[in-house]
């Protein structure tokens, strides 16, 4: 149990249980994308909102214009392809859509890389 004020639930906590979680994936490799697609297709609990194949670091539009509005509940962001671009995108998503949980997807497990992802706004 958390010490938060129960009268002020975050928007994620107030989602009706019958509504699936929305997910956006960014730059996932082919294998990870395939696994995600199988999972999403097999359960009504998750809905794939969008799949982006590039980081769009030079895109000056609002993050919500390219991840979708309302923002997704979860964003899966590949940190292996281009760690610097992934960190920049995570920072933008965290700033523009703070209720979105950002998951850094990586085959690496070095502490400094995990810390970099967390400092960029990734929660997982």
What fold name goes in the CATH topology slot?
Rossmann fold
Strand order of the largest sheet: 2-1-3-4
Question: Given the helix and strand composition, which structural class is it?
Answer: alpha/beta
Strand-residue proportion: 15-25%
CATH architectural group:
3-Layer(aba) Sandwich
Count of individual domains: 1
**What coarse outline follows from CA principal-axis ratios?**
globular
CATH homologous superfamily grouping: Response regulator
Largest sheet: 4 strands, parallel
Mean pLDDT: 83
Cα distance, first to last residue? Answer: 20 Å
Strand tally: 4
Top CATH class: Alpha Beta
Based on the model shown, name its key terms.
19% strand, four-stranded parallel beta sheet, disordered N terminus, 4 helices, 124 residues, alpha/beta, Rossmann fold
What does this structure look like?
This protein is α/β, with parallel strands linked by helices and 124 residues long. It has a single domain (21-54, 67-119), classed as 3-Layer(aba) Sandwich (Rossmann fold). 33% of the residues lie in helices and 19% in strands. It contains four helices and four strands. It has helices at residues 30-42, 63-67, 83-96, 111-119, and strands spanning 21-26, 46-52, 74-78, 101-105. Strands 2-1-3-4 form a four-stranded parallel β-sheet, sandwiched between helices. Helix 1 links the parallel strand 1 (21-26) and strand 2. Residues 1-6 have low confidence and may be disordered.
